[in-house]
Design a protein that fits this description.
The structure is a homodimer of 368-residue chains.
Chain A (H helix, E strand, L loop, with lengths): L4 E8 L2 E8 L2 E5 L1 E4 L11 H7 L4 E3 L1 H6 L3 H6 L3 H5 L5 E3 L3 H6 L4 E3 L4 E4 L6 E4 L1 H11 L3 E3 L10 H21 L6 E6 L5 H12 L5 E4 L8 H12 L8 E3 L5 H9 L4 E4 L1 H7 L2 E3 L5 E3 L19 H5 L2 H9 L4 H26 L3 H10 L4
Parallel strand pairs in A: 4-14, 5-6, 6-10, 10-11, 11-12, 12-13, 13-14
Antiparallel strand pairs in A: 1-2, 2-3, 7-8, 8-9, 15-16
Helix pairs in contact in A: 6-7, 7-8, 8-9, 10-14, 10-15, 11-14, 13-14, 14-15
């Protein structure tokens, strides 16, 4: 059997329910992947992630390359062993981080030279290097090295897209490990013709999965939705589609409605560190608010997460005011649970062919 | 049945194995109590504490009085409900914290006026107030308001001891809740005659348990041991004995050897936040040490804690270098497990009448 295969179990409109088989187990789609930037999903133990029912976890090539180093991770048996996450993993290519660095970076056709945010040392990523690092890290899904443009700059978006395509072919050529699936990334800013061109090119390479990059980076929601429609009309139905860096609940619903299968985002854990708890149906509440000081209820009535089953809003607010780490842990558990519950509900709705009603009801009730 | 009773199951030399029955369950002694200063054992969820098999957890009156306020905790159903720890709890009296404040404090025969470390506001604790706060908090074991002296200052130690005795009588008179056990505290610095006088006085009041304060505050180990011997020769055998603020492994062994039943200390969690892991048999290792960068072993070979069963030294060092919160959580789990394992081993050794050999072997092998 192929190490990777995507089974499409049901479609409902453009929404899809499937299973992506990987060497470390199955990913039931649609899925949301929590982000473990530095080989740890911030403030959670791996036991918490298992208890939450997480399947796919993402980690960052840029960060792990710099610290502890991909050679060290390889020596420790790869990322799954190193962080003891025995379920599927995905690494990004490092491209997004490198292009987001505030300081020195030099881009040429061959790659990018950049300065470490840790010690200012100079490093260089090329498509080949990004693949080599990710082969050292050993995630199940690895990402092509790409360039994310400013979404409204047409000339730059075109140039970045062309570079992304050239780099994708080099990544595909450089890739050696059969137990890793390389996903190509569609770029093209907010320009339908560029997105179309990019999707056609990426789809032409016979890769086991496809990603949509350069969204949720400053464009409007309607623009994001339009790009998803353009791209997903072209990307083949028999391969999983991954919308990168998107994790707001309404974006998950809108993405699934337009044929996306996989999402990742730091949002649930980052919000938790800023005292914000996600509310199913959308919206968030600031747990530091004085109105919760005497509140005996859970973050969300009826929520089945560990946090809501065991702790009151008053206790969580106390932890925040007292600057206790446990607040970040408890809110992270709740937020990830909220997103994993949402993707499970969407999956069920698709399998039962009632996704349209589910999405409408969800988005109508959305309290952003 | 009385809400509190102490069953002495076995003695071996001066070492004792027993059970202290409380309204929230049994405490098998000897026991070590992790400290949840602000109603949370730092970096751990309550599920972690249950998994570690913790029974007694301590929390701090001074901190909870200031934030979130004992009235709020009472309104939330008391500390057990507030932090959702349904096993036995103990609160200190706030005395130690108030007397440790670097800034303004004024002591008189009636009580102490002090400045909040949070906002500089002025507050006053008296014995009656300390009891009232602890009745609001609702722990199973509450502590008398005492004054901890400088151990080598005889005049001050005597004055503080006398004040501690007067305050203990006032605490006993003020106490109303039958579901809380008030423990009196023996003081007297490093002076055997003062310790003897203090132990006799405290023992004369018919309290359900007795504590030994003012140790591990700067005196030598032989001085600490001498004081324990003087005091425990006087404190009645049929009541539990609690050595406050002591948590180094060799101190637990030396304490149990001299008749102590209960210990508490911030040491395991504080060490964890400073990257230090405890080693059974004594000693600690600095997990940040570069020698662990490539180390595939657990913190301690054969350790059965979650951390050692799942993660390598290399991974924990990486978390520390990357300033990830998970390092504090994982080392805290290991350190508390180490101390709870030690007290369980001592209990078993006492029940099997081989404590002397256990203690000798432990202390001989001690790598401080």
């Amino acid at each position: 059997m192929e190490p990777f295969s995507f089974e499409l179990l049901a479609t409902d409109g453009s929404a899809r329910a499937g299973v992506f088989h990987t060497p470390h187990g199955d990913i039931e789609t649609p899925i949301f992947a929590p982000v473990g930037t530095q080989a740890t999903v911030k403030s959670l133990t791996q036991a918490h992630l298992l208890e939450l029912g997480a399947s796919l976890v993402l980690s960052n090539t840029y960060h792990l390359y710099l610290r502890p180093g991909d050679d060290l991770v390889a020596e420790m048996g790869g990322l799954h062993q190193f962080m003891n996450w025995q379920r599927p993993m995905l690494t990004d290519s490092g491209g997004f981080q490198v292009f987001s660095l505030p300081e020195f970076r030099k881009i040429d056709e061959d790659g990018v030279t950049f300065k470490s945010h840790i010690d200012g040392s100079i490093h260089r990523f090329t498509p080949e290097k990004a693949v080599q690092i990710q082969e050292n890290l050993g995630a199940d899904i690895i990402m092509a090295f790409d360039e994310c443009s400013s979404p409204y700059d047409r000339a730059y978006s075109q140039r970045a897209m062309q570079r992304t395509h050239a780099w994708l072919e080099r990544c595909q050529a450089a890739k050696k490990r059969p137990d890793q699936a390389l996903f190509g990334i569609v770029q093209g800013g907010i320009f339908p013709d560029l997105r179309e061109e990019s999707a056609r090119f990426v789809a032409s390479l016979g890769l086991p999965g496809h990603a949509i990059g350069g969204l949720s980076v400053g464009e409007t929601k309607p623009e994001m939705h339009a790009m998803l429609e353009v791209v997903n009309a072209i990307l083949p139905a028999e391969k999983p589609r991954y919308l990168m860096g998107v994790g707001a609940p309404e974006d998950l619903v809108n993405g699934v409605m337009r044929g996306v299968d996989i999402f990742d985002c730091v949002l649930p854990t980052r919000l938790a560190r800023h005292q914000a708890a996600m509310i199913p149906g959308g919206g968030r509440i600031n747990m530091m608010n004085a109105r919760y000081a005497h509140d005996k209820g859970p973050i969300v009535d009826g929520c089945t997460c560990y946090t809501c089953q065991n702790f009151t809003r008053a206790y969580i607010r106390h932890l925040i005011m007292a600057r206790e780490m446990l607040s970040g842990t408890l809110i992270s558990i709740h937020n990830i649970h909220t997103l994993l519950t949402l993707v499970r509900e969407m999956r069920k709705a698709i399998l039962e062919h009632r996704f349209e009603a589910f999405a409408k009801s969800y988005l109508d009730g959305y309290k952003a």
